[in-house]
Amino acid sequence: MPDAMLATMSQSAELPALNWSELGLSELLPTGTVTLLLADVEGSTRLWETQPETMTAALALLNRTVAEVVTAHDGVRPLEQGEGDSFVAAFARASDAVACALTLQRAPLTPIRLRIGIHTGEIQLRDESNYAGPTINRAARLRDLAHGGQTVLSGAAEAMVADHLPDGAWLADLGTHALRDLPRPERVLQLCHSDIRNDFPPLRTTNDAGNGHLPIQLTNFVGRASQIVDVRQLLKENRLVTLTGAGGVGKTRLAVQVAAGVATEFTGGVWFIDLAPVTNPLVVPVVLARTLGLADQPGRSTMETVCRFVRDLKMLLILDNCEHLLDACADLVVALLDAGHDVTILATSREPIGVVGELTWRVPSLSVDDEAVALFIDRARRTRPDFALKADNSSVIAEICRRLDGMPLAIELAAARTRTLSLTQMVDGLHHSFRLLAGGARTAVRRQQTLRASIDWSHGMLTDPERILFRRLAVFMGGFDLDAAHAVGADADVEHFQLIDLLGLLVDKSLVVAEEIQNVMRYRMLETVRQYGLEKLAESGEAEAVRTRHRDHYTGVATELAARIRGDGTPLVPWAELEMDNLRAAHAWSCDAGDFDPALRLVSSLQRLWVTRGRFREGVAGFDAVFSDDRYRDVDVATDVWVRAVADAELLAVWFSTPNNLPRAQEALGAARQRDDQRLVVHILLTCAVLAMNYAELAEPYFAEAAELARAADDLAALYHLRAYQCFVGNVVGDPIAAQAAGEEGRALANELGDSFMSRYSRVFLGGALVLQGKLAEALRVSRELVEEARAAQDLPMETFGLMTLAQALTFTGDATAGRAAAQAALENGAAMGGFHEDTAYLALAIAELASGNITAAKQACDAAWGCTSPLKELFVRSFVPMAEATMGCGDLVTARRWADDTVAAVPGSHQVTALTARAGVAVAQGESQQAERDLHDALEIADRTGGYLHLPDALERLAALVADSNPEHAARLFGAAEGMRQRHGEIRFKAFQASYDSALSKVREALEQHDFDGAWSEGNALSTGEAISYAQRGRGTRGRPASGWESLTPTELDVVRLVREGLSNKDIGARLFISPRTVQTHLTHVYAKLGVTSRVQLVQEAGRR
């Protein structure tokens, strides 16, 4: 049947769609968190070609079946979504999508067999009648994995339906797989049922699992068929196989070829890690982390981050060129193999790595009679397309290959000369230069000398200017551009006008490789050739001068680009990512030479790269390499360079570890003041403020002075950095009003100057400040915009932070299901980055579970949040995680009270509202109503003072419950006031608290006449937030805190007394309570006066008698 007729028949039988535009489709398509079902017909083109009449009827039946089944399961089909015989259906409930898929797979649709993919996520509308964005793209890639008759689900969908599957159905875990063109792998599950087929071939992941992470090969792989079989068998039997052999023997190429052939056996993917450019052993795990797409993790080393990522994956790692980093590689492979029991490592090295369990396999040369000849012919044809093996040249080619001992790199270099030399001339050259090749079998050392002889021969054919440029270019790591070649390679011996021609000649002679990257021509040397060039550079006596020129070029360019950086990080960040190996080499050369000034300038100039690309730990390591060097104190470093380096290093450290270098920052501040450089002073003031972030009274003066100087200098960039960090610190110390003001100003200034990253950073904590104030509608808007913008910019860290804030805002406004989904999406994103800020995502999930009444799940999420936090974030996590209430809900009042007491003693500012309200709930359960009442009144007072109104309705309702028996009219007003506040703020009551609320409210209703209750309720409901707090506090006046005695002590004073009894000093008490020692002494003075004691000893004695 003609193709045109087939196409016409297929189009005429496409699945029909209702005219949704006439029905108001924008109101019918589900939005928010949606489950999508995407399906198509397996082998539809073949079926049309072989069974056209049958397919016409079968497709008509499919049309009717899909329309009926989707409608029956409350699904919607978007207008014109899907092409040909594919279709899309959307469901508000994931369980409906799974039930629909099962019904479709059960339906008698022969010869049609459907491939179905199901994924749940936040959806975007392209227009009124179609979906677009990451969720539908991921669903489509899932469908592409399936076979006909098979239904696959994503991990996100599985989480929604695991407890709501159709009768008789179950899910089979198919592992984690890469999805074509998408940035992170996906956990895939298969829907199974006894009524449908359940046994299928492996998922269609051949191209994705392997080649997506392997280097692209531009030349044919020749020979080694039996060796590929051998190495593949070794990988099945051993978890660490090291391919050894001389440089140039083909270890890397063989490893890549083997990996491509076994890719489908590793569901976690096959990953290639090139260690050749790495000079610092500490960077080895960093390179692996970057290859796997992992960001730095707060409180964890890079090695820990990598090990956590691989522990549940079946994956193959190719560690290439290990010989110069044997100790670091040994540590890495031991850690990886111990962490992930399904991890297999294929390494290449000139020497064994030397760890237990390693199997070494020496890569031989190519067989000279066939494989070597075939390689020579293949590579020669790339230089001379008409080159062929003939009767009159076969023996000469064989002789060349024998002289080259079957070494692949040497053969490739020789084959490249066929453009300018005859085969006879080539043999003559080998006779003169390769005398070591004569004789019998070669040892490993001789094979290495063979390769050297090959390169020696190529080098010997260069002119003097070519040789000079060749050895100078060997200093580059990972490639270089033409500007860099001029800066490093040109001088009196190689004029600038000569360089481009000389470079072209080196490319022609296969000593330099030219390739276009990001629309710019770049150059590089094969590693073995580069090592040879470095030896020639050392012999020349100009190595130090060339390396210094290399260092000066990259330091200068980095400094220049940093000075004119734009808001999106260009041109610095893209350039630095491309030149990372050269930048590392430049820094290493400075450190090795004890030239610390340029080393620090280089690392500081890359600050934007470290921050925006999540390379915090690598940046700090660059600074530490200088600061920890014993020679550092004896070397003169310009004051401005040192001050900026201290500031940059400490700010980077804040992102992942507890800051502990405030004294050094203060010393740098003093040095900056002496230089009278206001911009520098502002920068180090900001650093000091951030380092003091857990102590509001210490941080504020630094922020205030920095802001005043920045405004005076009209330094708007410094000002929005200040405001963004001030917003962050405001969240930490519980000052949401100041945090909001700083966040809004920082966002506005960043937007004005076009700095999209800092704008997003400001909004992360602006959203948090709005949540703390109970401004939930605004928090929803800010966090939604942040997530969308970060997603569009492929800014996964800021998207993840935004999802965490969005999860809380959604939960508190009554959509706990969506809040849970957002928290789980944040966890999913974090997992893709190796566990990025899991603690914050888990606490958001805990809040959503508590709001849903899932006490056990809430407790589990609380434990997960606390278990994975870092020392820097312990105070932050304790301020938010609902551990006390979840623990109380699980029946463990003792542990709940201990957590609540510690939290009240630790958390600052408005976080006390949450902490005291939670402790009051526990105290009520323990029968301590006076403690509960005191805590709730203190919570109201703090909320009024700080503007932290989140949880204030809970505090009013719990206070009302306490007086329900003694003063029901007062309780009714408090209940009404709480409800009015919920209506204004949009803050719902968690299901976990609903039963106790209903019980107390019923008690009040029973105690009052209906009109009395309604009147009191209405009066309370009409109160503003401030009036409600004042009214509740007036009720305290009848039993207000006395002037002396234990009942006169404030909660903070009671905490000070408790810690004095434990034997802590003022300094230690201040550290526990996050206040200064002077503030501790002030509290003690008040305590002494109220209790009539004069010393710590008397205080301890008095407390013991209480």
Automatic annotation (TrEMBL):
A GO BP entry: cyclic nucleotide biosynthetic process
Name the domain of life.
Bacteria
Q: Which PROSITE patterns match?
A: GUANYLATE_CYCLASE_2, HTH_LUXR_1, HTH_LUXR_2
Report if keyword Transcription is assigned: yes
Q: Which residues form the Guanylate cyclase domain?
A: 35-143
Xref: SMART domains: CYCc, HTH_LUXR
What keywords are assigned to this protein? DNA-binding, Transcription, Transcription regulation
> What molecular functions are annotated in GO for this chain?
adenylate cyclase activity; DNA binding
Q: Which Pfam families match?
A: GerE, Guanylate_cyc, HTH_77
Q: Where is the HTH luxR-type domain?
A: 1042-1106
UniProt xrefs under PANTHER family: HTH-TYPE TRANSCRIPTIONAL REGULATOR RV0890C-RELATED, REGULATOR-RELATED
Q: What is this protein called?
A: Transcriptional regulator
Organism in which the protein naturally occurs: Mycobacterium conspicuum
